[in-house]
Amino acid sequence: MPKSQVRKKKVYTPPTDIRPAAAAAASRKPSPVWLPITAVALIVVGIAWLVVYYLSSQRWPVESWSYWNLAVGFGCMVASLGILSRWR
Question: Per-10-residue mean pLDDT for the chain, 88 residues long?
């Protein structure tokens, strides 16, 4: 059986008139110091809220909110993920 021929591909050379994206990303400023601190604080507050809610047999932190306490706890943790998405 005859062997098929291998095509030779040309080496890609990027155009010189376009600025590379890597240089644009490197020119951005680093994150402020408060950003990771705030995110970690929100995670800790969210977990603490849920732990207190369950360990107090749904009486604390706010008894009248009943299951909305879960939304507050998980909302804090989701907000921290949103903040961490801005971290460089």
Answer: 80 77 67 95 97 87 87 97 94
| Spatial contact of 46 and 73, defined as CB atoms under 8 Å apart | yes
Residues contacting 83, CB < 8 A, separation 6+: 35, 38, 39, 42
**How far, CA to CA in Å, does 34 sit from each of 37, 46, 52, 83?**
5, 18, 26, 10
- Report the amino acid identity of residue 65: W
Helices of type H across 6-86: 21-26, 34-55, 68-84
Predicted local distance difference test score (pLDDT) of residue 48 = 96
pTM for the full predicted model: 0.66
